[in-house]
Amino acid sequence: MTHPPSGNGREFFTTTTVGAALALLASPRTTPVERVPLADALGRTPAAPVTAAAALPGFARSTVDGFAVRAADTFGASEGLPAYLDVAGSVAMGRPAEVPVQPGAAVAVPTGGVLPDGADAVVMVEHTQVTMPGSVEVVRPAAPGDGTVRADEDVAAGAHIAPAGRPLRAQDLGMLAAAGVVEVSVHRRPRVGIVSTGDEVVPPETVRLTPGQVRDATAAALAGLVTGAGGEPVPLGIVGDDADALERVLRDALERCDVVVVSAGSSVGARDETAGVVARLGAPGILCHGLAVRPGKPTLLADCGGVPVIGLPGNPLSALVVFRLVGLPVVRRVGGTTVAPPEPTVRARLDRQVPSQTGRLDVVQARVTTSADGPVASPLFGASALLSVLTSADGWLVVPEEATGLPAGTAVDVTLYR
Amino acid sequence: MTHPPSGNGREFFTTTTVGAALALLASPRTTPVERVPLADALGRTPAAPVTAAAALPGFARSTVDGFAVRAADTFGASEGLPAYLDVAGSVAMGRPAEVPVQPGAAVAVPTGGVLPDGADAVVMVEHTQVTMPGSVEVVRPAAPGDGTVRADEDVAAGAHIAPAGRPLRAQDLGMLAAAGVVEVSVHRRPRVGIVSTGDEVVPPETVRLTPGQVRDATAAALAGLVTGAGGEPVPLGIVGDDADALERVLRDALERCDVVVVSAGSSVGARDETAGVVARLGAPGILCHGLAVRPGKPTLLADCGGVPVIGLPGNPLSALVVFRLVGLPVVRRVGGTTVAPPEPTVRARLDRQVPSQTGRLDVVQARVTTSADGPVASPLFGASALLSVLTSADGWLVVPEEATGLPAGTAVDVTLYR
């Protein structure tokens, strides 16, 4: 099916700001909860705070190699006048302390060993001398608590050890392991259906193209973005400019997926057709069509029976820019993530002017280099249809809605690709 | 086996700066190359630059919905005096252009359609009027090239579309797909053997601990860090304080892994024992033992027959801090990554003084909050043995070797955990 332009082919959108668009899908239905083993939990999002069943470390513990003592027995000790203590025994790593510390006595204890009953401090070995077998000279006084941690100093029983809504980081896995939590309840990864449309689009494995054909770049890149945001991409292939075929694919996608993304055909007609299909898929339907962002204006957001549907522009660069801006936040929220991981950014000076229009958010790709005066951002303009602009960029910056461009020399925050 | 402190139990290290330590393992043996499908290539590191077999898009293409014309035919056109052109046909999406553009004629073309022979510009539909069937009025002049991209404008044949040494990003996957590259040669993920040692250490699944026992927190957290850096963690379990058993496990690890990490026991004796075992594993052996960093001083770096071996301190917080600092760069290099992904950082003001010693790098965990004056970093001190310091931190900052602490109010760069 072709879409020759008609004389009244101008597009009319009710443009919505990016912020307002995100607010439209701020509280989507989240994915169900599943139990995963700790080894698979990196980056997964707990559905509820994880709590410690018992205190950690669970026993008063030495933090140094030394001698467990009663601190009072060491008061006033010095190099000139050491405190002499009887060595009553030693603590073995990983074992209960078998010998208590009586007044005037000490028990040898390694770093991490159990503090014996009766002791309230550990004198580090560097502050002791052994001159006679069976006794030790302490040459510096210890205060109660020195060289020890309390049984609940790391974690109290019942304390939260990982919050809900924040993807688990490496150290969180360590803490869960320490607390004996070897399975954790997390949101299932959101399944994100990815549909490409357009009679011109052919699969990436197509070896020879005929003039007019392009390989599907958008689906592979979207899959990468979805994976990076903790989602599971569900590739749903390419649909030609055929409304009935698209409707069948999207209805199937709504059954199987938590979010559906469709890159619309590039022409006005193809985009209108996509919107028409989405409008039939379920209530409440299209939430906005047309974003006040460049590139990315012909973006469509819909809620089809509780499943967010995102219609992206046909050209890959625009599709990827706007999916990063509005799609990834939706994917994260559907996956239960309320605290998104921080993005790398760098503050840099623009090396030339960036034009813009008031009322529209401009997303500008940039290279970042370093100069004697600090980081420099060089905007990459070029035709917006070119994927090479995106692959040669180090990051991107925005010109906010209220600005009429940014003069050269402006300090901007560039979000770096990783 | 226990390690009661001896009277001369002071540790003697030849401390090495972190920079010098990294230089010792700057050019390790990299992993072999394997072919992976595009769908599995996110974050994988190409072993050689990936090139495009043919130019992209491969045909001169319209970037607008409109009419392909000879620009000369539109010179001087205006609303008052339009250029009248015969519409000779239309281009279908994804198909070769069947009708050339003769002088005085136009061909309708959708966004992304093939530019017909004879045409050198596309007039967007908004700058045209159709008043009579079979002809079009052009109301604005077009310059040659307007509304088009050249056949090689995105990528020239033979051009590099992804560099060696940089993990593939989402947009790189899109570009590879566009170029028909559906399998890519990347370094195999580095296999990182993870061994925990210590008679006190028990598996995380241990339900009830006896006093003195701690669950292995380090291995789970290290596995997370390795995964995040593109490596494949190989869990090798827990070895008690038994030199022969440790040697067996490490010799096996050297056969199977590209990097081996061993968290040494906490006590001086256990650490010395680990170093003794590592020293026997292969030439050139131990490269440095003792880093000028806090926490993390008792770190050991070795090269055992071409396999980097990293000995970490026994306490989980110290082990994770130092592995992030010196272990992850080694894992990345072994995996062929020469351009590491950027880390998120934030410039923040210290809300209090951070003490330090000259000649030692201090790694300080911090919470980051925002104030009216911008981000504020609150250092978390607490006992260094506590994993909770790491789980409650938003990021970390360093006090460089040459500084004697940082006064309150200093602007610092906090690297944020993600």
Structural class of chain A: alpha/beta
Number of strands of chain A: 26
Residue fraction in strands of chain A: 25-35%
Q: In terms of per-residue confidence, which ranges of chain A show pLDDT below 50 for 5 or more consecutive residues?
A: 1-12
Name of the CATH superfamily of the largest domain in chain A:
MoaB/Mog-like domain
Instruction: Supply the number of structural domains of chain A.
Output: 4
Q: How far is the N terminus from the C terminus of chain A? A: 39 Å
Could you describe the 3D structure shown?
Two copies of one chain form a homodimer. Chain A is of the alpha/beta class. Chain A has four domains: 18-31 and 189-334, Molybdenum Cofactor Biosythetic Enzyme, Chain A (3-Layer(aba) Sandwich); 33-54 and 159-187, Molybdopterin biosynthesis moea protein, domain 2; 61-149, Molybdopterin biosynthesis moeA protein, domain 3 (Beta Complex); 345-416, Beta Barrel (Beta-clip). Chain A has seven helices and 26 strands. Chain A has helices at residues 18-24, 170-178, 218-228, 243-256, 268-279, 316-334, 387-391, and strands at 33-37, 50-51, 61-62, 66-69, 83-90, 105-109, 121-124, 128-129, 135-138, 148-149, 160-162, 183-187, 191-197, 201-202, 214-215, 232-239, 259-263, 284-289, 293-294, 300-304, 307-312, 345-350, 361-371, 374-380, 395-399, 411-416. Chains A and B meet through β8, α2, β14, β15 and α3 of A and β8, α2, β14, β15 and α3 of B.
